[in-house]
């Protein structure tokens, strides 16, 4: 099973890149974040035309998550607790009996902001979500834009960036608490020391060309599933195309 994740930063703007990539790579599952469309505006026909099933939860102009899969999704759920009172940030579906949890973790804005505390609380609620619905000794995939680079090798300037959003000690602690529930970073399992990124900030001139990136997009799995992974990699090519997202695709393969 090939599983991928991609923050589109607006799915309609990135649809040509996305559909061409799907035709070329043919993943079994693609988790998408930051779709930025209401459900009635989600471009499902583009995916169904490629023989993919799609499940989505969005809202106007902000957030939004989707799962695109070759096999029809089952046991789909939305939100951590109460979809009607939440931002569209988490979507869960079983694909071939494997639960896939796709998240778009809050960005946090600034360490001294209310949104930063919201982000830390969101991680706490996510830990509770995993504890209520799953077991760490059973197969589970957690994928998406976590909006945290976990290790020094995951950012271009670990000393200079320490304490900034996405690379803050409190974020590291919050993410580590969720990881301790029972997750393995599948990319790091296969690339223990590799410096590779999934996000390059638009606001930094020529960030991609200069190698000024972050690895904030992830595919994690419980140990019993991670040990069946055969490889994991980042496809940076789409970030170089015309009108790209500020993120690119991360992928992992599992021999099931």
Mean pLDDT: 97
Determine the strand fraction and express it as a percent band.
25-35%
Instruction: Catalogue the unreliable spans.
Output: none
Shape assignment: globular
| Classification by helices and strands | alpha+beta
* SSE string: EHEHEEEEEHEHHEHHEHEE
How many helical stretches? 8
Integer tally of domains: 1
Distance between the termini: 7 Å
Major β-sheet, in short?
6 strands, mixed
Q: Which percent range fits the helix content?
A: 25-40%
Gyration radius over CA: 17 Å
CATH class: Alpha Beta
β-strand number: 12
What strand order characterises the main sheet?
3-4-2-1-12-11
CATH superfamily: Endonuclease/exonuclease/phosphatase
Description:
It is built from 8 helices and 12 strands. It has helices spanning 15-25, 44-48, 114-133, 158-161, 169-179, 186-190, 207-210, 223-226; strands at 2-7, 29-33, 53-57, 65-69, 74-78, 90-95, 98-104, 141-145, 183-185, 217-222, 229-235, 249-254. The relative contact order is 0.16. With 256 residues, it is of the alpha+beta class. The protein starts with a strand and ends with a strand. The longest helix has 20 residues, at 114-133. The chain has one domain: Deoxyribonuclease I, Chain A, CATH 3.60.10.10. Strand 3 (53-57) and strand 4 (65-69) form a beta hairpin. The protein has a 6-stranded mixed beta sheet with strand order 3-4-2-1-12-11. Helix content is 25%, strand content 26%. The mean pLDDT is 97. The radius of gyration is 17 Å and the shape is globular.
Highlighted features:
256 residues, globular, 8 helices, Deoxyribonuclease I, Chain A, 12 strands
């Amino acid at each position: 099973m090939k599983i991928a994740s991609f923050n589109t930063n607006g799915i309609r703007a990135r649809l040509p890149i996305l559909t061409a990539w799907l035709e070329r790579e043919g993943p079994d599952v693609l988790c998408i974040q930051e779709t930025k469309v209401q459900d009635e505006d989600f471009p499902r026909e583009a995916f169904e035309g490629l023989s993919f099933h799609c499940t989505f939860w969005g809202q106007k102009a902000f957030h939004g998550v989707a799962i695109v899969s070759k096999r029809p999704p089952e046991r789909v759920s939305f939100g951590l607790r109460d979809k009607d009172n939440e931002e569209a940030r988490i979507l869960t579906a079983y694909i071939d009996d494997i639960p896939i949890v796709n998240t778009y973790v809050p960005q946090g804005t600034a360490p001294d902001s209310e949104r930063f505390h919201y982000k830390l609380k969101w991680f706490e609620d996510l830990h509770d979500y995993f504890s209520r619905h799953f077991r760490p000794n059973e197969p589970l995939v957690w994928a998406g834009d976590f909006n945290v680079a976990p290790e020094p090798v995951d950012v271009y300037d670990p000393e200079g960036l320490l304490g900034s959003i996405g690379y803050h000690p409190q974020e590291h602690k919050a993410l580590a608490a969720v990881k301790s529930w029972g997750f393995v970073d599948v990319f790091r399992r296969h690339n223990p020391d590799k410096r590779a990124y999934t996000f390059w900030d638009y606001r930094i001139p020529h960030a991609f060309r200069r190698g000024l990136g972050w690895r904030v997009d992830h595919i994690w799995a419980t140990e019993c599933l991670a040990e069946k992974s055969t490889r994991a990699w980042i496809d940076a090519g789409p970030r170089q195309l015309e009108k790209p997202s500020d993120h690119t695709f991360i992928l992992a393969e599992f021999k099931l």
